[in-house]
Design brief:
Blueprint lengths: L2 H14 L6 H30 L8 H81 L3 H17 L26 H11 L13 H8 L18
Helix pairs in contact: 1-3, 2-3, 3-4, 3-5
Length: 237
């Protein structure tokens, strides 16, 4: 998974907003209706002025009244149609926005699920590496069958009972063998050391120097790793 690409796609979709294929045409129609309303009002006002102004020539009140009724009816119908279109547009846009947000949320959830799956896979690989390394140490220090099996059982108990919600090894009394799961505390070597301490074992780092995680710690010059190159030079200050 390319998280950066997924996030960029979400940002692009969010910036684009909901697409409304009929929006432009609908805006044009609303402008036409608004213009018709204005023209109708102009005609109605002229008819009122014609009927009320003092003219020498006689005015047919019935004819003017009939014309005004037609114009005012046309204005009312235009306003009603404009109102209807505005309401339909609001409803349609609400639906488009809801669909757009649902699509965005689906993209987010898919990305979160992939990230969670990748993290679970990483943690599982790390835990397997720790488990195998500690068992290597048990076999190296406790060749006797009974003692070896006892420590295997103890290791299983540590995995089940002595890990807190954050995956940190905790001894009785609630004291963590190491701090937050970040920085050097996230190193496989650091966690192996914690497990060995819980089982009264002394880690032999030469046993795992060719393992993938040990090579990665060496290449990264990970602070606190037994595989990192020791710093040389004058002390700071």
């Amino acid at each position: 998974m390319n998280t950066h690409t997924d996030i960029s796609a979400e940002e692009a979709l969010e910036a684009e907003g909901p697409l409304d294929p009929d929006g432009e045409r609908e805006t044009q129609l609303l402008c036409v209706l608004a213009r018709l309303t204005e023209l109708g009002m102009v005609l109605a006002e002229k008819l009122v002025a014609q009927a009320t102004v003092d003219n020498v020539a006689p005015v047919d009140a019935g004819e003017v009244g009939a014309a005004f009724a037609k114009v005012s009816r046309g204005v009312r119908m235009t306003v009603m149609l404009e109102t209807r279109l505005l309401k339909e547009r609001r409803l349609r846009r609400d639906g488009l926005e809801a669909a757009h947000e649902a699509r965005l949320q689906a993209m987010r959830e898919a990305r979160w699920a992939e990230e969670a799956a990748e993290e679970n896979e990483r943690v599982e690989k790390q835990q397997n590496a720790i488990d195998e390394a500690v068992k290597d140490m048990i076999r190296a220090e406790r060749p006797e069958g009974y003692e070896r099996e006892r420590l295997y059982d103890r290791l299983d108990q540590v995995w089940v009972k002595d890990l807190d919600a954050y995956g940190k090894l905790v001894l009785s009394g609630g004291q963590s063998l190491y701090g937050e799961m970040g920085g050097e505390d996230a190193l496989v070597s650091k966690q192996i050391a914690a497990f060995c301490k819980a089982l009264d074992l002394t880690p032999d780092w030469d046993l795992w120097k060719d393992s993938v995680w040990a090579r990665e710690e060496a290449e990264d010059e990970a602070e606190g790793s037994p595989y990192a190159t020791p710093k040389t030079g004058p002390p700071d200050g």
